Protein 1
Amino acid sequence: MRLLVVEDNRNLVSNLFEFFEPRGHQLDAAPDGIVGLHLASTHDYDAIILDWMLPRLDGCELLRRLRAGGIDTPVIMLTARDELPDKIAGFRAGADDYLTKPFALPELEVRLEALQARIHGRHKRRILQVHDLRLDLDTLEATRGGVLLHLYPACRKLLATLMQASPAAVTRGQLEYALWGEDPPDHDMLRSHVYELRRSVDGPFADKLIHTLPRVGYRIAAPRQE
């Protein structure tokens, strides 16, 4: 599994890495909620291990923003808050599981495995298609005309956002939120990501699917809709 650990306790993060990496798992770590939100929004993870009490943005608010942005990565909350109202708040924010501190690392691993089994068992394969462009939301494989497209994580997120809205327009603000939440970079990184996406999706093909709407944003539409 590829895991994101959003936790400000360095000792706990170190323990998680020492336990999970020898078992073949890949881990990224974020020391606060803002960094965690950015990583979770722009990278693909099998699950997120999320602390509640975080600097800059607490775990529940981070989780609410992820779910509002359409990111359904499974989340296990780790927290010392073990009262029933706290657990209810965590689940209502969008948590898939809840583990109170202190906890045993093997239990966390088993919970992650069980969560993966449930998620993959209940989800039907989700395919987005516009013209000859296809995106599998489960495998994150994008193809056009049967040709595999090699996309950076940010470009995949942009592509999914545009295809889910197709043929409607998606504003620049909506695309920036999909990538960075409420903390977009000061410079115009969106333009660079759209340029890279266009190179992959439209560059080798005669029919252009990605369209710029001046002063509005972008959309993906089949040629017959132009």
Note: Helices lie at 10-20, 33-42, 59-68, 84-93, 105-122, 153-165, 172-180, 189-201.
Protein 2
Amino acid sequence: MFHRFLPSHDSIKSHRLLRWLGPRLHDPSLWRINRHTVAKAVAIGAFFGLMIPVAQIPAAVIVSLSLRANLWIASVSTLISNPFTYAPLYYFAYHLGAGVLGIPPRPDDATPPVYESVGAWLAHAWEWLSGIGQPLLLGMLLMAMVGAIAGYCLTQALWRWRVLSKRRRSLRARIAI
């Protein structure tokens, strides 16, 4: 099913930006589509997709190389966070982190403040970041861990269900004959 969307092994191995990885890219488990490599890849992609806002795909690829998970699926599954989902994810992460820490969420002022200088703006930005930083990071970490575990377990369960349903249909077809 996924094979038609995947680039060929040769095109990836011969790509000029990836040649430095050399024989590591020849590991067949990085390209194999089975229950274990896909589940690991989904977990890695979900973790980095929910945890860090930049360089998600390179981080997922590096971890996939070391854990021998499917590179393509790990890269694609990081797209759980994208420009359309950043705001709701970070909003939920902040409120989750604030709830765990027992910090009441800060109400936002309706009118933006006026600054006399760039220094005043930087001081306010630093104060604002330090206020939301700890709850936001904790919420992102919790969401990333839960997302990775849920992605792994859900992939394993769905894969197993699909295999069993195929076997049942095959068995029914043989019995009906």
Note: Helices lie at 9-13, 35-51, 56-67, 71-77, 86-101, 118-176.
Protein 3
Amino acid sequence: MAEDNMTSSEVLRTDNHGAVRVLTMNRPDKLNALNTALLVALRDALASADQDDAVRALVLTGEGRGFSAGADLSEFRGEATPDQLKRNALRSSLMSGIQVMLRSLSKPVVAAVHGAAIGGGAAFAICCDMVVVGTNLKFGYPELKHHLTPTGVLTSLLKQVGPKAAFEMVSLGANFSADDVLRLGLANRVVAPEAVLPTAIEIAKAWTENDAAQLAATKNMFYRMTELSFEEGLALGKDVSAAMRARAAAK
């Protein structure tokens, strides 16, 4: 699969496939654990892609044996100094902000998930607009087993599965399979591990065939409607329809 161009940083690689930008978390020796450097790089790359008119869709994936093993717990170790407390606050802000960004970007994002998608890695995956998982998936929220409270990951889970399933996942900390996450509605496709990234890129390329403004309006409307009543959703649809007709007439 030829790449148009590629840029990289120490912790995040960026590949362009036409109008599709692939963001690859690049800490394979740590199973792409989310340290501060990776979180900052991912935040900046998402913001940059959203402002780049040449980018029409995004794929988020991980290098090596897994998508992401979640928080890099080594950054939590040591004495609770003022500097460490500031770093902890920054990591918390980045974790929350990236989950919001994945939903609020004007460009759609598909997660290409193989191997481990744990904790924060699981949260990032399910905050993407679509999710392709490999049959080798190990998905879960083990925060309590590490003596941590799942503060930064619970909201995205609760928004997408019922309360009983969500509580089971965070309170027992078990790993869930590809078939499990498909059954729970957290994934769109289950494919062989080697087909995960090509399938995600294929989905993203299909998105690029749509009108960019129409697709952006659809994504924005979609997530706003999830927070509205039935009547409010219909009213929002009417407003968006009128705005898009006015846009078309102005061309």
Note: The first helix runs from residue 36 to 51.
Protein 4
Amino acid sequence: MDTVSLSGKELAAAINTDTKARAIALTEGGAAPRLVLVVANDDPASAWYVNSLRKSAERLGIACDTVDLGPDASSAAIRAELTERGADPDTDAIMLQTPLPAGIALDEVSSAIAAAKDVDGVSPLSLGLLAAGLDGFVPATAAAVVELLEYHGIPLAGRHVAVVGRSNIVGKPLAQLLLAKDATVTICHSRTADLAASTGSADIVVAAAGRIGLISGEHVRKGAMVIDVGTNEAADGTIVGDVDADSVRGKAAGLSPVPGGVGPVTTALLMRQVVTAAENSRSN
């Protein structure tokens, strides 16, 4: 069986074209949409991602400010910055970059992000709105998985989807989004007794656990679709996913590449949500 590459590059380009046109319209109307990235770490991977977001924003006509609080920032300092930016009328969107300083949990500080500006959907309020099926921003990576599947014409209604990973960034919100599309969802995690039994019966397997090679050919039934959300640094410095791609190819009907699959769609959706937040603020 030939395994189709479920690339996200074309989808991301289409989203970006629309986002740029909307950003230009906002700029011509008085002010460019503005994203603020709040950072409280000295992690090289985080710095690379922040720089990547800044470049993406600039290409699309979105103003982007970075606030570096340093790796020793306190919970109170992070919350104060988020609260201040939330009250700033010139700030349309806020993202809190992880990892956070040792001892500070994401939910401890993310609750200070105003829901209308929480474009990555990480606050407890945003996650609660998603769980209740109400309007709000959703975590971009979770949304990217659904958009990638739909872009490639993979039906979700009535399908069995196994999601491997239960984080508030991907696994849990993705399950909510899939349920809203009438999929039947199984969430697997580190305590799942027989992972292969749970994933092996699924029509679609989403790997989002952050472990290199966690999903191999034995975890996937013939003809299944596999979405690899993982972005892990291998020993040689390359970026690899959670899926052992070599053992899955020839068995799965489709596999998203790493890099080039979910990643570019995630960034594109983040930028689109920044513009949406700006449009919402202008209409109020």
Note: The CA atoms of residues 142 and 170 lie 5 Å apart.
